[in-house]
Amino acid sequence: MAERRRSGVAHSIRRLRLRIIGLLCASLLLAGCSTTAVRGSGDLGLVIERASGSVQLVDNTRRERLATVKGLGDLSHASAVFSRDARYAYVFGRDGGLSKVDILTGRLAKRVMQAGNSIGGAISSDGRVVAAQNYEPGGVKLFDADTLELLSEVSTRDPASGQSSKVVGLADLPGNRFAFSLFEAGEIWVIDAADPRHPVTTRYRNVGRQPYDGLASQDGRYYLAGLFGEDGLALLDTWHPEAGVRRVLDGYGRSTEKLPVYKMPHLRGWALSGGQAFLPAIGHNEVLVADTRDWQLRAKVAVHGQPVFVMAEPSGRRVWVNFAFPHNDTVQVIDVPTLTVVKTLKPGRGILHMEFTPRGDEVWLSSRDDDKLVIVDTATLTVRHELPAASPSGIFFSWRASRIGM
User: Fold this and answer.
1) Backbone torsions φ then ψ of 16, nearest 5 degrees
2) SS3 breakdown of the chain: % helix, strand, coil, rounded to 5?
3) What's the CA gap between 399 and 406, in Å, rounded?
4) Less Cβ crowding at N or C end of the chain, within 10 Å?
5) pLDDT, tens digit, for every residue of 352-374?
6) H or E stretch covering 2
7) Among 106, 128, 96, 115, which residue's Cα sits nearest to residue 39?
8) In terms of pTM, does the model score above 0.85?
9) Residue 370, SS3?
């Protein structure tokens, strides 16, 4: 009997030892996972390296490169949007490629060829649908954000002529809607993608000649299209769609000679500040300032060259401007209250894009011809750091995931 009791005690001790060892192993595994795999994505972003068909993933807190993702095709004029959880970036290539990049693991998660010539895209307000705008063959295609399965296509082909219009200025609106402009047809369309396999299209005709780009305001109320074929812009108030599209800033360049245009300017919701819209004057060395209460022209700010991007800091206190060739080595800063240029910078050759960190303490500039990124302190307006990059163009930080019109 005593022998059986000693054997039972020994067996219990062995079981207890095994349980302790198991718990220790589990704790070590969890500790390992927590230190190597978990991080946020709110300070991550990507830089388009157009010449090599790659994107550089960056950390804008540490100001460092994390990884390079290759195999994205022709990235001239490429742009990107982010998934709702800011983990994935959807990159729209000029060759019609649509690539889904995992910015946490630095991997290409999925890539499809969806057109012959694409110019950008947007993501729906619920994050389920990615929309691509195309030059060739025209139209807009809607994709499942998880799988990149094609859900539907909105054609811009004119049944009478058989010609398709290029799509420009695609922007997301609240309620899973997208607005965009038709370059040749001179129209603005809004599609409701609540049922992305059967989108519903509303057309606004005769908005003006050759709309070249568009923006959605940060609250998603206004959609504004710039016109290349005439001086003026076309405005749609989506709170009152029954009122249609109206012309604003008509004839803004009437008193000055229009210059040859070497590069189309870009519009996005980042140019709205303090109840004013700051807009590039196409063919003129000016930034237009419109009051967003009545969309009347309030001022013109003379600048160094033809503006390409006109972007307000997240605080709205100042507006930064870069320029088309031959002045693309220059960036100017406009003080919003006084509407004067307060700083002229020469940060590098071929400055193609600007991107602010989430709260605007820095702005990152891409210097294509010097193969570098220039990071500028927005408080002192001095260069804080530089990073190497191969022919960089667009810079896209993940804060865009939670903004309308980005």
Assistant:
1) -65, -40
2) 15, 45, 40
3) 10
4) N
5) 999 999 999 999 999 999 999 99
6) helix 2-36
7) 106
8) yes
9) helix
